[in-house]
Amino acid sequence: MRRAGACAIALCWLALAGCLQAQESEGDILRRAMQDELDRSLSELQLEGEPKPYFISYTVTELESHSMRYVLGSHDSSSTNLRRTLFVAVRVGNSELDNTGFLDVSNDQIAINLGIIGTALPLRDNYDELRRVMWLATDAAYKAATKTYSAKRSALENQIVGSRTPDFSEEEPHLYLEESDQLGFSLEELAGIAREVSQAFADQPNVFASSAHVQSTVSSRTYLDTEGNHNRLYTPQCTVGATARTQALDGAAIHDSTYTYSRSCSDLPAIDSLRAKAVAMAQRLEARRDAEPLYVYSGPVLFEPDAAAHFLNQVLAKLLGATSVPETGNPQWDSNLEQVANPFVAKIDARVFPRTISVFNDPTISDYQGRPLLGSYAVDAEGMPTRRTELISNGILKTLLTTRDPVNKLVNSTGSHRGYGNPLPGNLFIQPESGLSMDELRTELIELAKENGSEFALLVRKMQSMEDFDGSESPLDELFQTQFAGGISAMPAIDVVKIYTDGREVQVLPLVVTDFVDSHFRDIVATSAETVHADVAISPFANMNILSLFTEGISALHGGKEFISIITPALLFEDLSLRSAVGFKPNLPAVPHPLAQD
Fold this sequence. Notes:
Elements (H helix, E strand, L loop, with lengths): L1 H26 L1 H16 L8 E19 L2 E19 L10 E2 L6 E2 L3 E5 L6 H31 L17 E3 L9 H12 L10 E17 L4 E18 L5 E10 L8 H17 L8 E8 L1 H11 L15 H9 L17 E5 L5 E2 L2 E2 L16 E5 L2 E2 L29 E6 L5 H14 L4 E8 L11 H8 L10 E8 L4 E4 L2 E4 L9 E14 L25 E18 L18
Parallel strand pairs: 6-8, 10-17, 16-22
Antiparallel strand pairs: 1-2, 1-7, 2-5, 3-4, 7-8, 8-9, 10-22, 11-14, 11-16, 12-13, 14-15, 17-18, 18-19, 20-22, 21-22
């Protein structure tokens, strides 16, 4: 009996072990499907007369988001978004010369392929179906890669080419696996926050339209390639936003918003605090209704720290990534593309900022002065570990951020592929040697105005970003009317005041900076001593990679919304040009807002 009992116990343990093993393998179906199809493709994928792939990578991004939108305390809309996307990158040839970095302009036709194919994946982990989708996507990416590689080789054979920078860097394989420890946030809790914040506008009759929304998102990225790089990371985010619109007394549309970001909805400030921020924003907006128009301006401009962070996100971040001009085999195209290349690539070891300012990028830092930095991340979209990079030292450009695509002498990755077309910072620190108080900066601003013979100078308190539009309307209709006209490299300054030489302040309607070039950074004449941390969503102006301008969907490599955390002082520019950002001015409503009757 004892032997029989012992056998029964042993069988039970074997059965339990088998169940646990089955559960473990089922939870890793995606990983196994990716690895198996990678191995098969690397060994077997080849068209007759064409080279085999020498590198293949799979990136799977998964996104789950829930959002609630309320208007004046009432539910307006809600949405749930579940998606899973596969990106396949294939390189043929070798690391010295492959199919990437080439723009085929033969026969006056533009043909481009980045070696990347994106496609939807099933949400459930069905091994056979995952393999089927990966197989077809890899096949398509390989065929496109061989076509581009052939065209690139033919174009280069007709040129006198000196020493070339390799097309792909050699890197040590890196393993990084995270486990998600985020607890879910109920839809009822999301609705409660949105409802309370939206009620902040219930006693604001001069706000013509308003809303509040809350979004809870968890995105994940699983990366695997044929060199042994493997990473999985999770990025939870929670956003509370409030948006308000009205019209100036001359009919110009004006708007404002406030956003609070956190890694988890449970980490948000108290609802009273969120509502108070919305009230303060509405009051600032109402105060701007009688703002004066200003059509053109040239002179000194002071950006307060928060405005400086958003401005730098739009005009500086893209310059800090090393991007090369694509090869075309067409001298006329080569000349044209050189004119729109990143000017910082040719300025390493030259002065690009005042000698009193240094700049570094460090996504490994998780918080600053007790607040989390949303620009922090451990590995980039190519599986490379991130690191601290000293970019500008005492005004001198020392290096640039890089991916695995070498540029000139920058041949190794800094772990800065954020899923966009060019390398971008994570946590960007602008460090002045010393600085002034805000009162001293205002005095300096006025002195510059006097030297220019002007009655006033400009102080910018807030810049517009894509976050200033909620889901109820398209920003593009308004943006293309005014902001994207010639010479505009940043979105408008929406909270701007004239500071007269006698100290008076007068609010002006939104303005845009025009004809901003990299040499303007050298014209920063003073900064504040205090630096401020701002998490800013990656700008639509972030792309400096000319190849990516011809493509769509590359930014989806990161999964959810991405941020740059910018730690910067206030910045005083000696001379900038601005013009009005006000477009069409509809008539004011014939009767007051219904709230005015209460």
